[in-house]
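Case study.
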Amino acid sequence: MSKTNTIASRDTGVSRTLGTILKELDWRRYVIYIGFVVVFLFFAVLLRDQGFLSPNNLLNIFRQTATITVIAVGMTYVIACAEIDLSVGSVAGLSSVCTAMALSQWGLVPGILAGLAVGLVVGSINGALVSLLGIPSFLVTLGMLGIAVGVAQWITASAPQPILNDTFNTLFGSGNFGPIPGLVVWSAIFVAIGAVVLNRTRFGRQVLATGGNRNAADFTGINTKRIKFQVLLISGMVASVAGMLYAGRLQSGRFQWGAGDELSAIAAVILGGTSLFGGFGSIVGTLFGALLIGLINNGLILAGLDSSQQQVVRGVIIILAVALARKK
Amino acid sequence: MNTADNVVQMRSIFKSFNGVSVLKDVGFDVRKGEVHALAGGNGAGKSTLMKILQGVYQADAGEILIGGKQASITSIHDAKAAGIGMVFQEFSLVPSLTVAQNICLAAEPLGRGGLIDDRAAVRRATEVFAEMEVDVDPSAEVSRLGTAYWQLTEIAKALSQNAQVLIMDEPTASLARHECEALFELIDRLKRRGISIIYISHRMDEVYRLADRITILRDGQHLLTKALSDVTPEQIVEGIVGKKVEGDLSYRARNEVSHEVEPLLEVRGLNAGPRVRNVSFALRPGEILGLAGLMGSGRTELARALFGIDKLDSGQVLIRGKAVSLSSPQQAINAGVALIPEDRRAQGLVLEHSVQDNLLLPLLGQIRRGGLLDGSKAKALSTSLIKRFAVKVAHPHRPVRLLSGGNQQKVVIAKWLGTDPDILILDEPTAGVDIGTKSEILDMIRELASAGKAVIVISSEYPELLAVSDRVLVLKDGSIIRDIPRSGIADEEYLQLAVQGV
Ligand SMILES: Nc1ncnc2c1ncn2[C@@H]1O[C@H](COP(=O)(O)OP(=O)(O)OP(=O)(O)O)[C@@H](O)[C@H]1O
Ligand SMILES: [Mg+2]
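After joint prediction, the assembly is written out as follows.
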């Protein structure tokens, strides 16, 4: 390019002062963190006599949000790719049931494999229907929500399936790793892997590009059908692990485990700053979104609100946070 | 000069985005019944100035006078009320509604009981079209119509809201030749009715055909406003580019490509859908092949087929003499083919993503270290691409959406040349690009060919096609009807006749 030098000199050099950088700093992107701190401080002051700040209670918050966090990590990929997965809650339920049944029949490893198989099968079906047949994921996974929970209820005749295998229970949620509850470790692992893969790998970029403009991604040589398939598969697999975490923590498999989690997970993802229209995703944001929801639940219970009041307050806070975070 | 004639006056307009100054003390006025061309290089601030007039943005300082009276325009609604209409570049129509419903959108005629009177809407649309002297079916669903009709509907929509001033930002970008001519005639008629038109275009022939006066912006500053009869074409070009431009639109014969050389790309009996029928040709390294044809003649479809986007029904594609299967863009890229698509916003870019992310999207494989993307490699590679293609970008981490049209196009080109393809297909590579940049892009194409690449250029602008092509294929209804060496084309007219199949 012989001419580029002269052309480049036409560019206006733009020097940015600290002032403009500060002004550009878009605080809306950090609303979730600000919100988290504000709500935390609020409860810390208001509920100091109810033991909100006790280490035990704080660990409890982590423990209670672990499964939502795990599910929401998978959901972040789906939403960043401009799709949705409504089946995650019932996949968790079905996975808990299958794990429990396989465990009592054949032992530890088959139990774990059975749980993962649920995610593999459901995720693949979701992904195939969306990417190959082009059916909107909203409809596919809405249907799958019913199917999975129905199957779980059917094969267990609605009865809980106790899990007596201590290794499994310790590994998946009941035990501790040193001083740290296993559930916390699980969510940390998922958040870490999820964040690195989304931000630092080719696959992650391709997910974001597919969600941002599928057409342009296609023209760039990205196999967007495969990407859509993969995110739904990931989401299903991750949900099945969450199901096993329910099973281990509650030492049983039951079709109700995870019911309604899809909505909490979606709320966590959106609170965390991932765009509902695709193209952007933040796993760390998702973690804080999930923690914020957990924090609110915990605080409201300690404050002595009954469950109907809790739901109202939770709804208000979520709408408020999303409203503050939206772009002008 | 009588200021009372000025329907619009903008005085000392300043505007900056995030500390980057885009308009500096710009003045602009429009007289009743004139066509006023607004010219300037990519990123000069034309669209921004018009968006201020239109209420999309607010100026940081300056005033706007409408009909001599101070006006405060803080929303599109205010602008409409003040009689300013815009023919959007990205059309603002609802595809699922009919033409009449779109025209009356938000001002629907109400019948008895407050319900929308659809028949009155059709009547009103018919009236507007009669006034415009164009023939459009008001009951047709917009999604079934071609872009030319979308545009007519846009214009009718603005007129039905009593617009006195119409802003047209690159209105011919997506029109075929005869459609352009129809638009120009419409503009003439509107002018006679006393409607003023602000016309933004990078095509000088259009400016000459239409405009009474011209205002040139350069780097956000007002350079000149003159009657078109008082400026020479050279002055205009120099004003826009900021320096003299040599005749870059003239063809320079390059070394003859020998027919002995093995073709880089050979296409045999290609069929793909209804618009690519039995196409065969060969392309040698170092050769630039122009594709000419009317809109719908299958040029874009041929490009898509070669890039693996559309399925081939039959036929063979050979690269370096070996048959290759091109059933996905990934395969095409691996085979060394790159396509710069015609619609940069829809197909070329992820608009909300940063300039850097867009540039690197096809190059992710190159910036990996141990499976993970390497931030410093990414930065180095994108910086070098930005430099090499002289993309004017204040900050590579901001969304590419914020760049001006021409700079967006440069990003698309840079993104693809980063992959170092052997065979490069460019579909309307200079759409929306200023004349300075246009000659840069044409030079770039020539250089690539000189470096031994094979290039296919699709363009509806004949001067441009003639400036670079060594050979021109003329397509009609999906088939090649002529294969003419550049030396066999005397002038534009010859090509135009060939395209029409005369
Ligand atoms: N919303 C925005 N935020 C930040 N920068 C912007 C925004 N809109 C425009 N710009 C910048 O302002 C400058 C002028 O842009 P504008 O779109 O007005 O140019 P233009 O003259 O219309 O160019 P073109 O001929 O390429 O369409 C560009 O450098 C662009 O990057
Ligand atoms: Mg513009």
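Observations recorded in class. Residues 1-16 of chain A have pLDDT under 50 and may be disordered. Residues B 17, 22, 40, 42-48, 402-406, 434 surround adenosine-5'-triphosphate (ligand 1) (CB under 6 Å). We will return to this complex in the next lecture.
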